[in-house]
Amino acid sequence: MPPAPVPVPVPPLTFLETLAAGLPTVAAGAYRFGGYANLSTCVDDADGAAAALQAAAAEPRERRALRRKRVANDALAARAAVVSRLLGELEAASAPGAAARLWRA
Predict the structure, then answer these.
(1) CB of 29 within 8 A of CB of 70?
(2) What pLDDT shows up at residue 42?
(3) Residues 6+ apart with CB under 8 A from 64
(4) How many CA atoms lie within 13 A of 1 on its CB side?
(5) Which position among 19, 22, 40, 101 has the lowest Cβ density within 10 Å, counted as fewest Cβ atoms?
(6) Rounded to whole angstroms, how far apart are CA atoms 71 and 17?
């Protein structure tokens, strides 16, 4: 009997990109997706995977929109905007005289 395959973790970015595209996700039962579990399907066997894939093919368009909306805050653009804002704040705080301005604020 061959050894059981070792599950390879789904990279979080790939998982979020899949959800952001509105695509359904089906994974082996060992995977749990935290706050996104209601947007993905975990299965325990081949029959469960087949059923989940058939259900995904027949799901309404609203489900795709729900996935997109749900992960919008985790999208790369949203993260880039946060980093950009933080870098701007850091730059402003490190400018000459910034300490005095912050102290008076």
Answers:
(1) no
(2) 86
(3) 22, 23
(4) 3
(5) 101
(6) 9
The amino acid occupying position 32 is: R
Q: Whose CA is closest to 28, among 1, 2, 9? A: 9
CB burial of 29-68 (b: ≥16 within 10 Å; e: otherwise) equals eebebeebeebbbbbeeeeebeebeeeeeeeeeeeeebbe
Q: What is the pLDDT of residues 53-105, one digit of tens each?
A: 999 889 998 988 888 888 886 666 777 888 888 888 888 877 776 555 555 55
CB 14 within 8 A of CB 31: no
pTM to 2 decimal places? 0.53
Per DSSP (E only), the strands in 1-105 are 26-28, 41-43
